[in-house]
């Protein structure tokens, strides 16, 4: 517990000094990471804690965005709502839409709930371009950040600090919520809504409120996005964004409070970094999701908890060899996959195909700072060799891990969860 | 004779063609322990579902005290002071034992929408949860995940959750099903203890339990109550023997 607090303090400090270190272009990426982190955290209130998997959460993010933009245009950052407080309008928009949509969606549970949320979001997505008053048609609407409180919000750094403030506050509020009576009931809702009814609770009302709260924080994230980009259009309601938050949340881990934050921040970071380097980011994202679901359903946060439990039990020294071989395995295998995908992607790309001349050997492609001839055996043997080496180390890593687990009751996902949530009892 | 706290008047329930409950009549007196027995498929669980609001009767009246409660929602019926347990263990498996009971205790404090104050600060809820833990003898297990409890411990937890709202009427649906002998003895004492001063309606297959625990017994066969009486009266009742032992042996 103490270590967690120290780590969080260090993280917060790092976030505070970040703009001083980063180049301006990266500050913008950091803002996007923060917004994605808050969005995933808001989504997880509904999904991880309330047990309701929404496939249409981009709708509330988008509504928050548009509401904030309208407020920016209408108020010019003056009066009761100066620019820094504008995300409140996003929150209000998200909350109201969440109440309405949630009232319908939570009438059903499970798959049907997911389908209703999906349908409502798609409805908005297809209606939005036609409602030019509200959503500005296909072009969308735009606005300008007005100066307030002696700040002009002209550069990315000021927007970064504004975003950081809102994100930290919102995540802290979301965490505090899990400790309140209603927050505890939200967990019970996930575990067994039927039993709650027979304990005298109005389950539908509770579900609607949890849905609306989640939509409200998604609306704040949307409002921050509006402040950052100063524009929005109906593409915000696209299914892709709803899917992205689901992927980010699950990759991070739904059963740990900060899991989605971790997942969203990492995925946004890699998405940003990779978009310059590769055209296959979506493929990697999908692969990562499948791997996480198959081999560590409790997500990255679950992995972190698992290893930290081992460190606590055996000490750093005993864990390092296993951790090292696990890292090498991961490195080698991802290198093999990346190598294969990138080579294939380049060889089959239209640009490359246009370079080909009949009866001439295929020209070399550059990858990892070297030239590789598609005709050479090594080019194709490379991923195979890397993969083979990775599998060999994997065997070793597995044996080491099993030795660590020796004489310990198996720590399944259920045990992990109880440790996380039981700490409050 | 004490006043009836729960009455079923000519209750019917059909699912399409299947007529499961056919004019059931039942009276639960204040403060008594009353068992409903009957062969498999007689409709005992359906009867409980009807009383607790899980299902709505096709016709007839269910009175809790003076109030007709048929068709009310489960949470409304719970608010009126009727609480039930389930035949198949129905708890919050991923939460700790303490949390399970605390959630059950919270309800009567009317704080389900409180989101501005940490739950740790509600000392009364904490005290009552601890008292309940002690009552169902799960103090040692309070931090354990409910899914990891043994079967009989889960049943005890289920009973604890049923008691948490301090109900006037308790419905227990086969609390001893699947228990060993020692576990049954333990659960029997537990039920006897915790139902002091309340009215209990219980469905149970273990006849030793029924006859030693209950003041009165009703026999449900094909959706009808064919007899109600003290354990001795029921033992001697000819129709009950027929229903249970088969007609050829009584002929």
UniProtKB/TrEMBL annotation, chain A:
Pfam families: BPD_transp_2 (PF02653). InterPro entries: ABC_transp_permease, LivM-like. It is found in: Cell inner membrane. The chain crosses the membrane at residues 52-73, 85-105, 158-177, 208-229, 250-270, 282-305, 317-341, 372-394. Keywords: Cell membrane, Membrane, Transmembrane, Transmembrane helix. It is a multi-pass membrane protein. This is Branched-chain amino acid ABC transporter permease. It comes from Pseudomonas kulmbachensis.
């Amino acid at each position: 517990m103490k270590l967690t607090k120290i780590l969080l303090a260090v993280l917060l400090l790092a976030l505070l000094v970040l703009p001083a270190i980063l180049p301006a272009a990266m500050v913008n990426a950091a803002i996007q990471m923060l917004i994605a982190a808050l969005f995933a955290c808001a989504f997880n209130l509904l999904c991880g804690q309330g047990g309701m998997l929404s496939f249409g959460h981009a709708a509330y993010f988008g509504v928050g965005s548009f509401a904030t933009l309208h407020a920016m245009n209408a108020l010019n950052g003056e009066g009761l709502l100066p620019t820094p407080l504008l995300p409140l309008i996003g929150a209000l928009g998200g909350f109201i839409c969440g109440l309405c949509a949630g009232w319908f969606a939570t009438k059903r549970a499970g798959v049907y709930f997911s389908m209703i949320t999906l349908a409502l979001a798609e409805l908005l997505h297809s209606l939005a371009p036609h409602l030019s008053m509200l959503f500005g048609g296909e072009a969308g609407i735009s606005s300008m950040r007005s100066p307030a409180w002696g700040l002009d919000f002209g550069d990315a750094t000021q927007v970064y600090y504004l975003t950081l403030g809102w994100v930290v506050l919102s995540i802290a509020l979301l965490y505090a919520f899990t400790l309140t009576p209603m927050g505890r009931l939200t967990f019970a809702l996930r575990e067994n809504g039927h039993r709650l009814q027979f304990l005298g609770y109005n389950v539908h009302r509770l579900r609607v409120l949890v849905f609306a709260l989640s939509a409200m924080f998604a609306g704040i994230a949307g409002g921050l996005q509006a402040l950052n980009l100063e524009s929005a259009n109906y593409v915000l309601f696209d299914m892709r964004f709803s899917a992205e938050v689901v992927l980010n949340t699950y990759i991070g881990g739904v059963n740990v409070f900060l899991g989605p934050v971790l997942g969203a921040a990492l995925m946004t970071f890699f998405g940003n970094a990779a978009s310059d380097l590769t055209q296959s980011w979506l493929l990697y994202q999908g692969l990562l999701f499948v791997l996480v679901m198959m081999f560590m359903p409790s997500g990255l946060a679950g992995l972190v908890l698992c290893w930290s439990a081992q460190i606590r039990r055996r000490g750093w020294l005993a864990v390092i060899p296993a951790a090292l071989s696990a890292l090498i395995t991961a490195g080698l295998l991802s290198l093999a996959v990346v190598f294969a995908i990138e080579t294939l992607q380049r060889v089959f790309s239209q640009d490359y195909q246009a370079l080909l001349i009949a009866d001439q050997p295929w020209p070399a492609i550059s990858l990892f700072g070297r030239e590789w001839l598609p005709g050479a055996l090594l080019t194709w043997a490379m991923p195979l060799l890397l993969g083979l080496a990775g599998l060999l180390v994997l065997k070793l890593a597995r044996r080491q891990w099993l030795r660590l687990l020796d004489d310990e009751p198996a720590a399944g996902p259920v045990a992990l969860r109880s440790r996380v949530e039981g700490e409050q009892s | 004779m004490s006043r009836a706290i729960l009455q079923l008047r000519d209750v019917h329930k059909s699912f399409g063609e299947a007529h499961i409950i056919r004019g059931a009549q039942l009276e639960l007196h204040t403060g008594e322990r009353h068992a409903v027995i009957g062969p498999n498929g007689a409709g005992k669980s359906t009867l409980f579902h009807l009383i607790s609001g899980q299902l709505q009767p096709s016709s007839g009246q269910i009175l809790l005290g003076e109030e007709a409660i048929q068709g009310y929602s489960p949470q409304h019926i719970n608010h009126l002071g009727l609480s039930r347990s389930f035949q198949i263990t129905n708890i919050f498996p991923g939460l700790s034992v303490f949390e399970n009971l605390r959630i059950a205790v919270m309800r009567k404090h009317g704080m389900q929408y409180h989101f501005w104050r940490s739950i740790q600060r509600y000392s009364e809820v904490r005290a009552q949860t601890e008292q309940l833990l002690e009552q169902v003898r799960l103090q040692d297990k309070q931090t354990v995940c409910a899914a990891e409890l043994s079967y009989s411990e889960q049943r005890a937890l289920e009973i604890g959750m049923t008691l948490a709202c301090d109900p006037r009427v308790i419905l227990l649906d086969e609390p001893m099903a699947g228990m060993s002998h020692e576990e049954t003895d333990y659960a029997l004492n537990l039920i006897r203890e915790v139902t002091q001063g309340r009215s209990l309606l219980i469905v149970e297959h273990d006849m030793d339990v029924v006859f030693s625990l209950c003041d009165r017994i009703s026999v449900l066969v094909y959706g009808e109550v064919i007899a109600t009486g003290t354990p001795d009266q029921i033992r001697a009742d000819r129709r009950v023997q027929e229903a249970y032992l088969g007609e050829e042996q009584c002929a």
